[in-house]
Fold this protein.
Amino acid sequence: MKQLNVFCEGQTEQAFCDQVLRPHLFPASDGIVHTLAVGEKDHHHVYGLGRKTKYERVRKFIHNTIKQRGGRNVYFTTLFDLYALPSDFPGKAVNVRDVVNPTPYVLALQQALEDDIGYHRFIAHLQLYEYETMLFTDPDAFAVAFEDCEVEIGQLKVIVSSEHSIEHINDGRETAPSKRIIGVFPEYAGWTTTAGPDIAEFIGVAKIRAACPHFDRWLVRLESIPWEMA
C-alpha cells in the first residue's frame, strides 16, 4: 500500500488533504494519506505554524515521525503556509523575497527545508502564501458555503482582478488571503475547517492547479513519486 504522510499547519489543511488531495492522488484507493498537524495547540485549537511554534520543535517532530513510519513505499511531505513562518525556519535568514516574483524565495526555502530534514523520501512544500489562496481560484464557489452572497462574491472577484495572480495575494497582516476572506465573510473565521475544504473540493484540483503554478509544482512532484509495485 502506498502511504503519503502530510505534515500540515493545522486542522484546516488536514481537512483539505482528506477531502481534496487524497481522492486526487489515490482515486483507485491504492494508497492512503496520513495527516499530522504540527502547530502548537491548547485543549481547544491547533494554532498555525508561525504563531507560537519554533522550527526546532517542528524539525524534531518530523524526524521522529520519519523514524517511526519510514519504510518501503512511505513518503513524507508538508503543507505549510509561507505566510508567518517562524523566524528560525531554514533559509529564511539568508534569502530575500522579491514582491513581484516570490517564486524563487519560496523554492529556496523549500530546498532549505529538504536539506535540513535530509531524508530522500521527504518532499517540502510551502503554500504561496496561504492555503486560502486556492479558494480565490473561483470566488463563485463560496456560494457552496454561504447563502445569498452575490455581493460578497463580487468583492472577492475585485480582489482577484487587482492582483498579478492569486498566488500574489500577499502576506500582509491584513491582506493575506485568509484575512481578506474574513474581511468579506466574517463567519469564515469560525468555519475554516469545514467551509474552506468544501469550497476547494467544489472548485476541483484541475482549476486550482491551473490558477496556482506553485501548487501545481507540488502536485507534479507527488504524482511523480516512484511508488514500488506491491
In short: The two ends are 7 Å apart (CA to CA). The chain has a mean pLDDT of 92. The beta strands are 2-8, 31-37, 74-81, 122-123, 126-127. The longest helix spans residues 188-203.
